[in-house]
Every structure is written in structure tokens, then in C-alpha cells.
Amino acid sequence: MQNSTWKPDPWTLLLWGGLVAAGLMALYSITRGPAVEYLSESVRDDFSRQFLWIGVSVVSVGIILLLPVRFLRYAAYPAYATTLVLLALSLMVGVEVHGTRAWLALGPVRLQVSELAKVGTVLAVAQLLSKRHMRTGQDLSFALEAAALIVAPAGLVILQNDLGTALVFFGLVPIVLFWSGLSLTVILLMVSPAIAGYLALLSIRAALVSAVLFTGLLWWHSGQRSIAAFAATFTGGVTAAVALVLNKILQPYQVERLLSFTNPGAEQFRQGVGFHLVQSKAALQSGGLWGTGFMQGPQTQGAYVPEQTTDFVFSVIAEEFGLVGSLVVLGLLAALLLRLIKLGAEVKHPFGSIVAAGAVGVYLIHITINIGMVTGMLPVIGLPLPFLSYGGSAMLANTALLAIVLNTHMRREDLSIYGY
User: 3-class SS at 95?
Assistant: First the structure.
């Protein structure tokens, strides 16, 4: 046990450092290059603030690595409850930015509570699912309990008007359930709302047809009416909810933002929300194979791409370092995910293993949606790229989650295989 206690996985830390360095390089190009004359005073300071938050994140890694692994288990539910309280508090007295009330002001520092809530939720779900061996034959019950833990903060985040972050929570459901060893039927059941929601954005009719087919398939596969009823409720309910939201709840500009990815060059989108995608695609094309050079991207340095330091930081990398640079960054991200999966597999206790799966899930959802936004394959819903986009709260939360995985792995012998 002593040999494993003080040896955090060096490859994980190296990959983290490479991604952070790539993000800082992109932020420096934006805030210190010719583009600076077009930026607001606040955005000009993004590089300096990100550098400070990285320092805070490094300190958090040191603190987390010193914690006994059993403390993380005992603290899981209290941490989760605390983040729920903070989410509710941000709704009441939080700072509103771009129509989203997700920040708590702590003096000069603004903390995006929903980022910290991801950490608390992963810990709580891991603690719940680690007890599954005590209640055999109750897969659906555990799945619904885990989903409830995830949906609660997601609901509060939706009330903050932050749909993108809420999707991260919802996307965690099938990932952690799959890793915890639940049946394929349950996994399909839990992933069905996401598929139904995406199809509903494209076509309500197609979503309804797929809901009927999916319900019939699960009924045939499981032979249980209860499973079929849940399938119909999940898929049909989400389809109906999307139709209601698009037609009755959201403002026209919000609907356009969701649907603009289907054809960003269309007249009704091009001068509005589609402008983001049009300019982002132009930056990707401008980079070519090797890129235009550091601080030399015409789209980047002309500040044509909105939100370059946050949601669209990958377009900066793609333009100035080309396809080769883009593939290097994507390779680092993929290597980090694969490394975390390996670490999680080496932890035989379900708590540590599911924490690793939760971390991979959070990062994977962010990466998929962000790259999908930048390339025009998904709606622009405002999700940063982990460790690269500007955002102090996101950097701190993502790094803390990484440190927790490292802790559970290097102290894996401290976790009894029986768990208690």
C-alpha cells in the first residue's frame, strides 16, 4: 500500500499539462495579438485570469491528493447537497451573464456553481452505485435513483437558463450506468431521451416514429410491459417536451439558436446566431493543413469568430495550427480519456471505478458538443472545451475531478473490495 500511496499517474498529469498549455497558447494569441484592439477590456484579461486559475487548480490537486480516499466517500453526499444549495442560491442572488443566472459573486471572484455541481454529482452517483452489490436484482431501481441524483441539479441548471450545462448532467446517466454494469436494456432506456431530443430538433415526426419503434423493440427484447411503458414515457415525453419548448416557451431568438446548426448559412440564421457557425467554419477552412501561423489567423485576429476565448477556442487552434495542430489537440484529449478509463479499470472498488467513468463522461460530453458546435454539426449551446477554453470555475472543477480520479487510483488498496 505504501508504494502506491504517493505516486499519482504521471501520464495523466502530463496530458493535463499539454492541454492546459495548448489552451494558454490559444488565449495568448487572441488577447495579445492584433485581435486585441477589437476585444472588450474584460476579454483582454482572459489570459491573465486563466493563468491564475490554473495556479489555483494546481493547489487543489495537491490538496485532493492528500485526502484519504475514504474521506471522499464520506463527503460524497454532503458535497452533493452543498452544490444543490449553491445552485438554488445562485437562482435567487446570482449574477446574470448573457441571460444565464449561474454565477455567485464572492467579492471580486465569480464562481459558476454548476461546474462544481458536476463534481458533487459524480461523487454522489458513484457512492450510490457502489452499493449495488447489496441489492441484487434491482437494476431498474438503481438506475432510477442514479438518474434522480443527476436530474435534480440538471433541473436547477435549466432554471438558470443554461441548457448546455444541463445536457452534460443528462448525458452522464447512460455513461455511469453502463460502467456500473447495469443491463443493456436499462442502458438503452436511459439513453433514449437524449436520442429522442436530438431527433425532435430535426423533425418532430421522425422523433415520434423512432419513439414508437424503440418502445416496440424494448418490449420485444425484454418481454416486460413496465420496460415498454418507461420507454414510451421517456421517448414520447421528451419529444412532446421539445415540441412544447420550441413552440410555446422559448423566445424566437432562442429557437433560432437551437436550430441554426441545421443550415447556418440560411438567410434567417446567417446574420444572427448562424453567424457564429459561418465564421467558425471559415476559420477551420482558413487553417488548411499546417495553419496560418501563431497569431496570424485572419479570422482569429480579425475577431470575426464570436466567443473565441471560450466556446470557439478550438477554431483558433484549427486556424493558426491547421489540421495537424487540431489533430494533436484532439489526440491529447483522446489520450486523456483513454488513460482515465485505464485508471478506472484498475480500481477494483466500484466507487473509484465509477468516479473515473463519471469524469470521462463529463469530459467526453463537453468535447463532443464543443467540437460539434465549432464544426456546425450540433447547435451552439455554449459549452467550453475542457482545459482549453477560458473559464476559471470550469478549470478548477475539471482539474479537481481529475485529481479525485488520481487519488482513488493511487490509493486503490485502501478501498476494500467489499466497500465498507
Answer: strand
For 162-199, how does the pLDDT look when each residue is reduced to its tens digit (9 = 90+)?
888 888 998 888 888 788 776 777 777 777 887 888 78
Residue 282's Cβ-count burial label (10 Å; 0-12, 13-18, 19+) is middle
**d(Cα 175, Cα 188) in Å, to the nearest integer?**
11
Collapsing DSSP states into helix, strand and coil, what is residue 110? strand
CA pseudo-torsion sign 241, 262, 175, 195: positive
Question: What single letter denotes the amino acid at residue 349?
Answer: H
CA nearest neighbour of 129 among 173, 191, 87, 98: 173
Helix axes 392-410, 10-32, angle to 10 degrees: 170
Classify the C-alpha dihedral 35-41-42-44 as positive or negative.
positive
This prediction has a pTM of: 0.86
CA 141 to chain centre: 26
pLDDT interval class at 330 (50, 70, 90): very high
Q: Counting Cβ atoms within 10 Å, is residue 132 exposed (0-12), middle (13-18) or buried (19+)?
A: buried
What is the percentage of the chain residues whose pLDDT exceeds 70? 88
Residue 256 pLDDT: 65
**Among residues 230, 226, 146, 150, which one has the least CA distance to residue 188?**
230
- Alpha carbon distance 359, 400 (integer Å): 10
Residue 216 vs residues 139, 189, 196, 211, 241: alpha-carbon distances, Å: 21, 12, 15, 9, 21
